[in-house]
Fold this sequence. Notes:
- The chain is α/β, with parallel strands linked by helices.
- It starts with a strand and ends with a strand.
- Strand 2 (29-34), helix 2 and strand 3 form a beta-alpha-beta unit.
- It is 43% helix and 17% strand.
- It is built from eight helices and seven strands.
- It has one domain (3-190, 224-248): Rossmann fold, CATH 3.40.50.720.
- The chain is globular and about 55 Å long.
Amino acid sequence: MATHLYIITGASRGMGLCLARQLLGQSHRLLCISRTLSTDLTNTARQLDADLTQWSIDLADPLPVTARLGHWLAEQDPHDVTGATLINNAGVLPPIAPLRDSDPAELARALRVGLEAPLLLTNSFLASTRHWTASRKVLNISSGLGRRPMASQSAYCAAKAGLDHFTRCLALDEALIPNGAKVCSLAPGVIDTGMQLQLRSAAPERFPDQAGFADLKQTNQLTPAHDAATRVLDYLNRPDFGSQPVADVRL
C-alpha cells in the first residue's frame, strides 16, 4: 500500500516527538533519527500498527548517518511512496555564555547538529530520491534567533541563520529541475520545551535576555509542543508550501 514517507530528526522529545506522534496517527511511514530511542513512539506505533523505524544516532557526527540514510532510501520501493518529506528538526542549545567564555567543543557540537547535519542529510535525501516521481519536500525547523541577534547565543543563532540561507540556495537549485523538491526553513514560534527552560534558567549576568524568556513563561505566551507540531504540519501541507524558502508559522 502506497504511503507518504517522513524522515524526522530530533524526534525523541519536544516538538519532534509531537510531530512523530501525529504523523503515526495519520498512517504514514516514519524514520526517526535521534540520540535516544523513544519508547513512547515504539508503544504508539505498536498500538496503531504503524510503520516506524528508529535510529539511535548522534548527529554531531553526521557523515555516518548521511551514508546510512542514502543506503536506506535506496532500499525503498519508490512505487510504494506517494511522497517523501525530510524534516530537519534536531538542534542543540550550547551552555549560555558569551562566545569568549564558551567551550569550543560545545560550540562545534551545536554547529554540527544544527547546521552541518541538516545540510548533509538534505544532500543524501535529494540525491537518493532524485529519480522518484513522487513529490518531495524538505522542511528545516529554524528559529526567530536565526533572524535576529542575541547576546550569549552565537552558535545557536549562527546555526539557524545558516539553515535559513542554505535553504534559500537549495530552493534555487531545486527550481531548475523537473519535480524539484519544495523546501522551506520555518520558524515555529516560541514553544514550551526544555530549550525554553534552559533559556529562562540562565544566569542573568551571562544572558541579558533572560528576563524576557522568563516573562514568556509567566505570561503564558509559550505554545505547547503538541499545538506547535500541529501548526507546523498544517504549514507543511499547505498547497503553497515552498513558495517562501524562509517563513514563520506565525505570519
